[in-house]
Specification:
Number of strands: 0
Bound molecules: iron/sulfur cluster
Distance between the termini: 32 Å
Structural class: mainly alpha
Order of helices and strands: HHHHHHHHHHH
Number of domains: 2
Number of helices: 11
């Protein structure tokens, strides 16, 4: 991990940061940088900025750096950080808010989770629920990781996770309608500058 100057205050994009914090329902000033979130994070070793530093970036107005960070994309959203925080800071919500904001701005520093997210939503939209074989096949093709998890296929088949029969729900149209509504709302928010409220 590169060294990080966390004492430098920059002008930054205050409105953008306020939007990220508001959508996560987090008061950034509540964080006193104790590091308990980072100590419990199972993905911290993969991050360019550990959870405590992500909060600090936002406290210091370093919006662009936070938006371009890999950390929100490798975050597993396990919520351990939020559970450990003595100040009740919802760091996992901040990670999610940053990730959604970055995506709406065309930024995805780690492509694989972005590809997976899109395909997962598309699969649910199509069938009403996930179909592992279709999802995994499309993911491997789109990501270029052609052989990823191929060796797990026999175990998944034995457990009924994959097979010739498609997993679906009775009212696929209702699920599709719900997802379209959410996606439309996201697009509208981005078009109306919702990321800078
Ligand atoms: S645990 Fe909470 S107060 Fe401590 S550094 Fe993390 S976010 Fe800040
Ligand atoms: S939610 Fe993300 S940042 Fe928080 S502990 Fe889990 S992996 Fe780490």
């Amino acid at each position: 991990m590169d060294s990080l100057n966390l004492s430098a205050v920059t002008a930054g994009d205050d409105a953008g940061i306020a939007g990220v914090a508001a959508r996560a329902d987090v008061n950034l000033d509540d964080c006193y940088q104790c590091g308990k979130c980072t100590a419990g994070c199972p993905m911290a070793h993969e991050m360019d900025y550990v959870p405590r530093q992500v909060i600090r970036l936002l406290q210091l107005g370093q919006y662009e750096t936070a938006l371009r960070a890999k950390s929100p994309w490798v975050c597993a959203n396990c919520m351990v950080c939020s559970a450990r925080c003595p100040q009740g800071v919802g760091i996992s919500d901040i990670m999610l808010s940053l990730r959604r904001t970055a995506k709406k701005q065309g930024l995805s520093p780690v492509p694989e989770p972005d590809i997976f997210d899109d395909l997962f939503v598309a699969t649910i939209r199509m069938f009403g629920k996930s179909n592992e074989a279709i999802l995994a096949g499309r993911y491997n093709l789109s990501s270029g990781h052609l052989m990823q998890d191929v060796l797990n296929a026999p175990k998944m088949a034995a457990r009924g996770m994959i097979g010739p029969k498609l997993h679906t729900v009775k009212d696929k149209a209702a699920v599709k309608h719900l997802i379209d509504k959410i996606l439309k709302g996201d697009k509208q928010a981005a078009a109306e500058g919702g990321e800078h409220q």
